[in-house]
Amino acid sequence: MTEAVQNLLGVDCRSFKQISMIAQGEFMKLLTADSQSRAKIIRNVFHTEALVSLQKRIKAEYLAWNRKCEDASTPAILAVPNLSRGAPAPIAALAPASRG
After folding, report:
1. DSSP E strands: which ranges in the chain?
2. Which residues contact 2 (CB under 8 A, 6 or more apart)?
3. Alpha carbon of 15 to those of 19, 51, 64: distances in Å?
4. What is the chain's Cα-based Rg?
5. Whole-angstrom distance, CA of residue 20 vs CA of residue 48
6. What are 3-16's pLDDT values in tens digits?
7. Per-residue model confidence as pLDDT tens digits over 17-60
8. Cα 18 from chain centre
9. In this structure, what DSSP letter does residue 47 have?
């Protein structure tokens, strides 16, 4: 019976509950809310908190890797003026500082 209802409606029990929740009052809040509140309502109705958390973690990792790439490219950028004058850049200038 459950499978027949799912096939007929095109939604499972969880989705049906979410749709009916919107119809029972959340929809009016959704229409009148500002964009931040609207996003919060949608996250609550569709239980997407885990996705928001994942998005924040990916962004933080991206920013960290981006900083590492910028830090790694600094010695190469500093060597470019020497190359444009025809003089080879000193290898010591390109090597990371020794930690000894």
Report:
1. none
2. 13
3. 6, 17, 37
4. 27
5. 18
6. 887 787 777 877 77
7. 777 766 666 677 777 888 888 888 778 777 888 888 899 999 99
8. 25
9. T
